[in-house]
Protein: Acetyl-/propionyl-coenzyme A carboxylase alpha chain
Organism: Paramagnetospirillum magneticum
Amino acid sequence: MFDKILIANRGEIACRVMRTAKRLGIRTVAVYSEADANAMHVAMADEAVLIGPAAAAESYLKGDVILEAAKRTGAQAIHPGYGFLSENAGFAEACAKAGVVFIGPPVGAIHAMGSKAESKRLMEAAGVPLVPGYHGKGQTLEELTREAAIIGYPVLVKASAGGGGKGMRVVSEASGLAEAVASAKREAKAAFGDDSLLLETYLGRPRHVEIQVFCDTHGNGVYLFERDCSIQRRHQKVIEEAPAPALADETRRAMGEAAVAAAQAVDYVGAGTVEFLYQDGRFFFIEMNTRLQVEHPVTEMITGLDLVEWQLLVASGGKLPLAQEQLSRKGHAFEARLYAEDPSRDFLPAIGKLVHLAPPSENRHVRVDTGVRQGDQVTPFYDPMIAKLIVWDEDRDSALRRLRRALADYQVAGVTTNVSFLGAIAAHPAFAALEIDTGFIERYRADLQPPAAPVPAMGLAFASLALLLWREEDSARTAARSGDPHSPWHQTNGWRLNDDNHHDFRFMDGADERRVTVHFVADGWSLDLPDQTLSARRATLSGTTLSAEIGGERRTASVVRSGFDITVLHDGHAWKIKLDDPSATAAEREGGDGRLAAPMPGTVVQVLVQPGDAVTAGQPLIVVEAMKMEHAIKAPAEGKVAAIHFKVGDTVAEGVELLAFEVKE
């Protein structure tokens, strides 16, 4: 076994690997960019090496710099995590030449499976069932158009390299193919440095089922059962579970055996995942990920195994700890991916400071894998994952109940998150009833993303009570400084000189003004809210946790204040309001004032119109790339482009006006 390893990654996965390494007595070396100087993974490591500026291309993707750091610190091996260099054959080869062990598969296996097109050719030759499609080397638009016509529409355009939903487009008819191909090629080139594509038949309602495989250098190979990853948005996984529900045992076994055969066909070593589409009792090979997957914890929860420990053991030349017949699973597990993103804005990544971060308590049923702490910044430079929430119980229904509760208890303030969206999925009757496939989110979007609603009365009540209690704390401090035990500042009954005993609060809920008047009464308060009056008693505030009897019921929430911004966190909801902020302005209707702004910091990759062009509502005008994803800015209504302020290649800040637009009268 190794004495010291370097983790060539950041965030959650770097911290995850370090936890196992420390348990095994292995020293760890972190690498970090300038943006990550104070990151959690840097603090956890025994040593840390600065490798470059914030941009991943100048830091976490600089294989030569990382390899030099490994040699300089005496690390015997490099764990690449997932993403970045984890499936980079050139980096694995450089490690081998430098005498540093790459904790991953051989170079040949990465080459073979790193290209979706090449892997499909290999699997076809090995007899592994494939989705009908085209994975040839011809990449001109003419060739792809011809092959798409042969396959038939709808067709899935897919980047040959990489994953994570990047470079993937569904095309319903021939007229949309050219735009989809061009966009997918740009996105794939930016994310993976390879713009080659493949085409597949787009299955109507498939499930995404994947098999965890492990192989060693002694010829042994096993599968550690399956995971269902069907709940996806924009082709990216959102909630995963293990085992895959409602599968016949013979299907599970057939998929597992096919996955091991696929791995052994390329002389695979280490942890890998073979992914299949499953529909109507049949399964089809999609791709193999030659690394540890984001969702590996659900497999660990049902098997009781540490897959990182297995990786380290196999990479150091050891045999697999267990044979296939010795492996067993127990219970059911879910993983929910918590992101800083806005589901109401097509899951646009969010950035900002994690002003408040309070995950649910961990125990044998609940696990939280994270790489951030309260006070950390979510930056535009990297994937905006906050944490992975993993739950386990004896059966699916029990585990799902724990998932709902844990999501309701997960509190994040300071950035917009998908916590309530995840909670809506977990609570949806169709999810509980196993009506799952890759189209689940789109099919139930109206249920999962209801129209924005005003902050409810309970949210305003919590915010108002918190403000009162904060003022009482300020008064108590003032009285303590005065040294006068008879000071009226000691009173907390609403006493005022020559005034009625009440407080008026003015909140901005988006563009709407919400007023609350709190009257002091004999046993508490009476709250005049916009639509009703509620009584409140016995309110206590400990840190951010506020407990009170409101409307005759005892309730608890967290209330977080940052400047004028107040966030009330209650039962999985994050209600955001602003306190009487004179600088707050009414939210602009999209395009209502002729101003179309960048949704977040990024780079202009395409300008689709010219000044003076007449356009229709919904027509794409300009495309901005941020966090390796393309975001099209569309016309809010029929009108004319008045001016364009940026060209392709320009870097833009969040909120900057991209172009001027005149709405047709």
Q: What stands out?
A: Residues 581-593 have pLDDT under 50 and may be disordered. The longest helix spans residues 457-482. The chain has six domains: 4-103, 121-130+206-330, 132-201, 335-448, 457-588, 596-663. The domain at 335-448 is CATH 3.30.470.20 (D-amino Acid Aminotransferase; Chain A, domain 1).
